[in-house]
Amino acid sequence: MNLQKYSVGSDNNHLTYEFFSEGPKGTIKKVVLYQEIDENVFNLAFGDWNEAKQKIDDSVRSNNDDRDKVLATVGSSVIDFIRHHPQAI
Prior knowledge:
Helix content is 20%, strand content 40%. By secondary structure, it is of the alpha+beta class. A five-stranded antiparallel sheet has the order 1-2-3-4-5, with helices on one face. Strand 4 and strand 5 (55-57) form a beta hairpin. The longest helix is centred in the last third of the chain and has 18 residues, at 67-84.
């Protein structure tokens, strides 16, 4: 499958990935965060970045008409994360 993806930036540890959704509702910052919850066990958190609260909001529905591109971008972050953390579950 060859879906379009957004350009993604990550931190040096490859635990946080950021990109911008572009659509009819404007530019929306999205964040994917990998959090270690047990030894080598990680949770993937994803959502819109809430600037006021300085955290991911995973309850908002931005509906920016780019669902497939957003999901492909999140998927590409999983591939990059696993490449840098091959022991992760």
